[in-house]
Amino acid sequence: IATAGAIYLLEREPNLTDLVPPLFFGFVFSSMLVLLKRERSTLNDFIGIILSTAIGAGAMSLGHWDRHYLKGLILIAIYFGGKVIYVKTMIREREKRSWRVASYIWHLAAILLSLLLLPRTSFIFALLLIRSIYIPRLKLKPRDIGIIEFFFTFVLYFVASYS
Q: Fewest CB within 10 A of the end CB: N or C in the chain?
């Protein structure tokens, strides 16, 4: 089904063919990690974020990029990158201080970048930093983490879309 949709989009919008080589490379690399039983690796998580962001961006923009759109796209990719590190502090790497510190640094950098790209989104990234500091202390279940993250994803998407 996805292939049929991709072919249809590529026929309508030839601009999207620019995305094919990097998407193919990412897909092959991610598939290799799966075959090596490293599908839960941080590297594979980041590859998935890049691929998802590129596919979503291509489908939404139909290959017609503008500066504002790219700024929002960068912030969304940064948000999901931070989420990879943050969720690891909540589940798999819960006891490792180094992961928490990496999460704090990532979120601080996201605040600074958001101030440069789309200043109206910086308060969301500040909330995400606070979240990354306090919520891991609550020892929540994965389901509860998912509900909280859905909320933050929705808010960021809404704010980035209308900034």
A: N
Structure tokens given for 29: 């690399």
Query: Is 152 in contact with 131 (CB distance < 8 Å)?
Result: yes
What is the 8-class DSSP label of residue 14? G
Query: CA–CA separation, 25 vs 50, rounded Å?
Result: 11
CA distance 158 to 118: 13
Residue 128 pLDDT level (bands cut at 50, 70, 90): very high
- CB neighbour class for 89 (10 Å; exposed up to 12, middle 13-18, buried from 19): buried
Q: Counting Cβ atoms within 10 Å, is residue 85 exposed (0-12), middle (13-18) or buried (19+)?
A: buried
Q: Which of helix, strand or coil describes residue 77?
A: helix
Q: What's the rounded Cα separation, in Å, for the pair 34 and 81?
A: 19
Q: What is the mean pLDDT of the chain?
A: 84
pLDDT band at 103 (very low <50, low <70, confident <90, very high): very high
Tokens of 152: 């933050």
Question: pTM for the whole thing?
Answer: 0.75
Residue 108 burial class via C-beta count within 10 angstroms: exposed 0-12, middle 13-18, buried 19 and up: middle
User: DSSP assignment, residue 141?
Assistant: -
For residue 88 the two structure tokens come to 């690891």
